[in-house]
Known about the structure:
Structural class of chain A: mainly alpha
Shape of chain A: elongated
Number of domains of chain A: 2
Oligomer: homotetramer
CATH topology of the largest domain in chain A: Tetracycline Repressor, domain 2
Number of strands of chain A: 0
Mean pLDDT of chain A: 88
CATH superfamily of the largest domain in chain A: Tetracycline Repressor, domain 2
Largest sheet of chain A: none
CATH architecture of the largest domain in chain A: Orthogonal Bundle
Number of helices of chain A: 9
Largest interface: C-D, 52 and 51 residues
Low-confidence stretches of chain A: 184-188
Distance between the termini of chain A: 54 Å
Strand content of chain A: under 5%
CATH class of the largest domain in chain A: Mainly Alpha
Helix content of chain A: over 70%
Order of helices and strands of chain A: HHHHHHHHH
Amino acid sequence: MDEAYRLISEGGFERLRTREVASRAGVNTATLHYYFATKEDLIRGVVERLFQELAMVDESPRDESSTPLEELREEFEDSRYRFQETPETYIILYELSLRSLRDETIRDMLQELDGRWWRHIEGYLTKGVREGVFRSDLDIPAAVATLMAFGKGSIWQSMNNPQAFPADRVYAQIERWITGKGPSTSPE
Amino acid sequence: MDEAYRLISEGGFERLRTREVASRAGVNTATLHYYFATKEDLIRGVVERLFQELAMVDESPRDESSTPLEELREEFEDSRYRFQETPETYIILYELSLRSLRDETIRDMLQELDGRWWRHIEGYLTKGVREGVFRSDLDIPAAVATLMAFGKGSIWQSMNNPQAFPADRVYAQIERWITGKGPSTSPE
Amino acid sequence: MDEAYRLISEGGFERLRTREVASRAGVNTATLHYYFATKEDLIRGVVERLFQELAMVDESPRDESSTPLEELREEFEDSRYRFQETPETYIILYELSLRSLRDETIRDMLQELDGRWWRHIEGYLTKGVREGVFRSDLDIPAAVATLMAFGKGSIWQSMNNPQAFPADRVYAQIERWITGKGPSTSPE
Amino acid sequence: MDEAYRLISEGGFERLRTREVASRAGVNTATLHYYFATKEDLIRGVVERLFQELAMVDESPRDESSTPLEELREEFEDSRYRFQETPETYIILYELSLRSLRDETIRDMLQELDGRWWRHIEGYLTKGVREGVFRSDLDIPAAVATLMAFGKGSIWQSMNNPQAFPADRVYAQIERWITGKGPSTSPE
DNA sequence: GATGAATGAGCATTCATTCAT
DNA sequence: AATGAATGAATGCTCATTCAT
């Protein structure tokens, strides 16, 4: 239910009330329970929807011909764009991470998502090193972990204190670190 | 109350029950309310305690003679150590970030914490660049933001999927990025 | 809810418990709250019901042809009859007078009731004086106030010490006072 | 305790809290319970105090030489004066009437008070009739009951809607009724 | 005498869920 | 497929009272 999705992003799982979901959707509480037997079922629905949405992104057919550097930039650009457009998605993702500590199903789903993300980053980093566009001394697994941690931390920061996060310069800096190049305006 | 602290880290604010806190602490519900008039008061107490604990760290008198590089390493070491010893603290911090979206008081407290952290990192990065131990092309504000995002993302990752986070190698990599030096095993 | 009505007259607002109302009505506490969101709502319902009941009396279409003296007697008769039949109503009215000291809504409702009562008495007293059945030296406003005070005091007395209140003789006496006539048994 | 007295008149028995009484009196709750084992004891104390205060009035040595008419006027004057000076006393009396419906001790005390009052009024009415200052056709018991009901009703009215009670004219009217005389300004 | 701390019994209210229709 | 009515099991909180000191 769209309304559940919206409500969670507004007030978190903590404030999610079946009555509220039903009334916002314009149906009776009993009707809601006709479709989602329990609240847990409803949440499962929300999670699955989120999962598909996020999975879609990572799977999205990147242009085969794009270079590793383009992929890195695309990753940054994409996450920034998506956070601006649908911050709810990321707030719910953040909430789910918490819930995954106590819910195995969610934990599995999130690990699956992380796995995909890992392989995606690993792919273009490896390619980039091989092609010489990224630093040759890159410790690939460590770099993947770093980029993922950084990505999640960016969500955290953007969520709490967006104005204190100079995205452009941050992305540029990371790019320099990974490529090993100096600032593009003053190449060594 | 220690028990509230523990309970929140176990089940989140969502599952915090005054009855449970009281019974775990071995007192009557009414006794709990004798000390904390409302549940909100109890939470406030927990938050303040967390705040002091985290603030203490950043303020802790670092050895004046420590070099910027040592400070960076100390930062990594410290966060890893503290997460291992008292993961609850970080889980609660994570929860609070969520709560801060809907609670101004918490938002302010967390921003204050972030401010301190920012100044701390900014301090040693600036010093490191001046002394030549860090890359001269470092974009300080961007680097601070990156390190903070990375730090928060590490909490997130460690919380959800600790075994997939090769801390040592990640830290080493970041160090190389910041110092601009190659891997220590293959000095230039 | 009838049961709330009964319970208040039995134990006053002070001892009114939603649980008790619900259980007496044979429903679950939650069911009671389904109809009356709060206890205050329930009380409001009771008050409104009482209000209608009392208002109805004063508005009740008195026989147009009834003489002022008949109206006075009817007033006495009616109050005695009603107190015997539904003493709860008057006990609750008494309680409400107390509550009105601290609750503006109730104060307004009771003043409205008093206003109707005042106009009703004023009506037949004026008519009676004009027609010569009542003493010509009657100070109408004072007489109305006296009759109302007397009416309320009768409720008070009947409530606390019914056997010490010789209603018949009291009413007869007042009638003599108002008409200025001697006792019917010994006409002047 | 004075504070209990004040609190009851402010908010009724319903809102009487031992904590509040204690804190207003500037002592600990436990200390209050040292003097009044139970809340019931405290209330008993208040009731006794009220009883003495009201009893004192009726017993107060009226001037032996005062005439029945003076006594009637004194009665009116006194009640008006006392209500103005210490309305709390009458509010509590009103509350107690309600409580007496469920508490035998209070019922007995109030009936004792009523008895004294009855005898007092009966005394001067009888004397007045004998001396010819009051109507000869006065039905003494009925008149006593009427005056008492009127007195209580006056408390009720004054409590709820003081400005709608023209005391002076009301008293004058009753006096005319009892004496059988026309208005003093225009004697028949 | 006095008090801080503690408690049992209760209270209004909430909420996911069920059920007859 | 939909709903109004009903409910059990909490939940945060209150308050008179007790007790060790």
